UniProtKB/TrEMBL annotation:
Protein name (database record): MBL fold metallo-hydrolase
Pfam families per the UniProt record, alphabetical: Lactamase_B_2 (PF12706)
Residue stretches making up the Metallo-beta-lactamase domain: 20-208
GO molecular function: 3'-tRNA processing endoribonuclease activity
Keywords, alphabetical: Hydrolase
Organism whose genome encodes this protein: Xylanimonas oleitrophica
Keyword flag Membrane: no
InterPro entries recorded: Metallo-B-lactamas, RibonucZ/Hydroxyglut_hydro
């Protein structure tokens, strides 16, 4: 099966002139899977794609720079004409916050919009323990999630194609150094890895849970990854430097995520 990764947004925190916050599309023969829905992602998505081609959404964690556009998607999904329900995966331990998000923005006077996200999507918890998360079989994909190192329940994701010609694409989400990242990325064909900083103190890295470009390169090397795509950069002026930094510790292919870039696996 062919699998293509398309970058919708690659900024930490918020959109910039380089595009949205975190958002990625996996193109499968059965349709599209959205990974993370940070601010600006929905606008980027609809600029090139039909929402009806979306088959599933997976959110690594419920920080706003990875999930804020879930509400924009849910509004469109439920009004004026409801679209087909699709699965939405988010960390199981944090689903109460997804309900709270709905309670803030629900519209009780419109049918189907009292709890927009839960009415639009079939909400499913990610277990973060490496078990297979069912629901993507029709797309020819298997999904496993692993525990990231971050202050809220957060997933490192591993998608594997289920056909004979197996391909693996992994996403770090937001994380510091941790075993879950290495498990998710083990011998992956492609790893989208956060590289929030060029340098930072221990409180930001192993404390809060983020990586530098050097650390992303080391993680890719330890996991035996073939192609590393660094993303989730904190500032636009990092962009010319972060790939070179990752290449100091990783001798495979290194790319820097950018809006609209596609990688064919
Ligand atoms: Zn985060």
């Amino acid at each position: 099966m062919t699998l293509t990764l398309e970058i919708l947004g690659s900024n930490a925190t918020a959109p910039t002139a380089h595009g949205p916050a975190s958002g990625y599309l996996l193109h499968t023969e059965g349709g599209l899977v959205l990974v993370d829905a940070g601010p600006g992602v929905m606008a980027e998505l609809v600029s090139r794609h039909d929402l009806a081609d979306l088959r599933a959404i997976v959110v690594t964690h419920l920080h706003a720079d990875h999930s804020l556009d879930l509400m924009a998607l849910a509004y469109r999904w439920t009004f004026p004409v409801a679209l087909d329900r699709i699965p939405l995966y988010a960390p199981a331990a944090d689903l109460a916050r997804l309900r709270a998000f709905d309670e803030v923005f629900g519209i009780t006077s419109l049918p189907g919009m009292a709890m927009p996200i839960h009415e639009a999507f079939d909400v499913r918890g990610l277990h973060l323990d490496g078990r297979e998360e069912p629901g993507l079989e029709a797309l020819g994909l298997s999904l496993r999630s692993y525990r990231a190192h971050h202050p809220v329940p957060a997933a490192c994701l591993r998608f594997t194609t289920t056909g004979a010609d197996r391909r693996v694409v992994a996403f770090s989400g937001d994380t510091g150094r941790c075993p879950g990242l290495e498990e998710a990325a083990h011998e992956a064909d492609l790893l989208v890895c956060e590289a929030t900083y060029l340098e930072a103190d221990d409180a930001a890295l192993d404390g809060h849970g983020h990586l530098t470009g050097l650390m992303a390169g080391t993680a890719a090397k330890q996991a035996g990854v073939r192609h590393l795509v660094v993303s989730h950069v904190a500032t636009d002026d990092m962009r010319p430097h972060v790939g070179g930094q990752a290449a100091q510790t990783f001798d495979g292919v290194v790319s820097v995520a950018a809006r609209g870039k596609r990688f064919h696996l």
